[in-house]
Amino acid sequence: MHQQSRRPAVLFLSLSIFAWALFDFANTIFSANIVTLFFPQYITEIIGTDARLEQISSTVIAYANAASALFLILFSPLFGVLMDRSGKRKKYIIIFTLLTVGASVLMGLFGGMNTGMIFGIPNGLFLTILLFVFAKFTYSSGNVFYDGMLSSLGSKKEVPLISGFGVALGYLGTLFGIFSVLIIIGDSSIHNAFWLSGILFLLFALPLFFINKDPEQKVKVKRPFLKGYKDIYYTFKEAKKYPSIFFFMIAYFFINDALATAIAMMQPYATTVVGFEASAFLIIFMVATLFSIAGALVFGFINQKYGSKPTFSIIGLLLAAAIIIAALPLPMWTFWIAASLFGIAMGSVWVVSRTIIIELSPEGKEGQFFGLFAFSAKMSAIAGPFIYGTITLVLSDFGTAASRTAITSLLVMVIIGLYFHSRVKIPRNQAV
Fold this sequence. Notes:
Its main location: membrane. Pfam families: ATG22 (PF11700). InterPro entries: Atg22-like (IPR024671), ATG22/LtaA_families (IPR050495), MFS_dom (IPR020846), MFS_trans_sf (IPR036259). This protein is an all-alpha fold and 432 residues long. Helix content is 79%, strand content 1%. The protein has helices at 8-13, 15-47, 51-86, 90-110, 123-149, 159-184, 192-211, 227-239, 243-274, 278-306, 308-327, 334-360, 366-394, 400-422; strands spanning 117-118, 121-122. A two-stranded antiparallel ribbon has the order 1-2. A hairpin with a 2-residue loop joins β1 (117-118) and β2 (121-122). The protein is globular and about 55 Å long.
């Protein structure tokens, strides 16, 4: 491990760190292009042929996201044990990346196919949905091992800088991925965006494959596989001994639930409810991404000046304002404001919540509670989309009112989250 902190320029130009951060650029191309933009657009175009079916398409998108999150919940505790037992990170990053890329390319292949029916659904559509669930699961699984590689790249003081560098390149990956599809795919069928996004993911992941190495594991850790589930259970029980951590975990669950669902459902909502063309939504999404970058930077300073508890409350209120603006039948231009506020919240919530976990965790238990924090985020990725999709399914006969009701349910989540956050007490000696 490095004894002395290196200057940022030296740090970022280190081959292993640059290759690691470039992987964030790579996998964000997948998450932005496929998860947030083009899979929802594909489903809406194929299924949403009338007002009722537009709501059903929202249900399909939401349930597909919830299904992939459920698989991640089931398997992610095993991944932590696998890392401890083998000491390997890169091997599993490569495996999961190749699976994600393969599934993305197959989505592009089957997306335009319609040669028969499976369970009353066109076979190309059916296979594309299944491949999406699998690809999002393998993408998220690879990120578990990717995040686990961070601590070996530098000293404790360097890790936040390295992490921030990865996040910054990730946002650039979002913009690069969108422009690449617009330039290369152009006006051709939307399913072509899938194979292109997969290939770009692989291309920019290659430096990590060839440059980075896992640190030598001197002592083999023998842990039974089921210990991963036991660890989560015991950490959850222990969190109850620290009321503020417990309340914040609940608050983060609901706030993140609302935010993640809003981002996942933004494309179908903007096109089927607000009335934007798919091409116009791409510009909205790019603007939201720029506001995410600004949010991450600005709220870091706000957090430093006013403390993490009030800063997190401000983020919650901005998110609530975004949901209200989006839910009401206001002029179309107001959705630009909602999207910008969603972007600010998306960019800042992780920056501030990570600080709160550090402030609230007892000394020596930071890793334990970060694990529970990550598990809470994964759980919320199931609940929000499932609730949203169920509302649009049940109320599909009411057309756009179904989606407006579904997005309003996210406001309820934010209010519950802010209530539990109000009960958090950050010790004065820990507050930033």
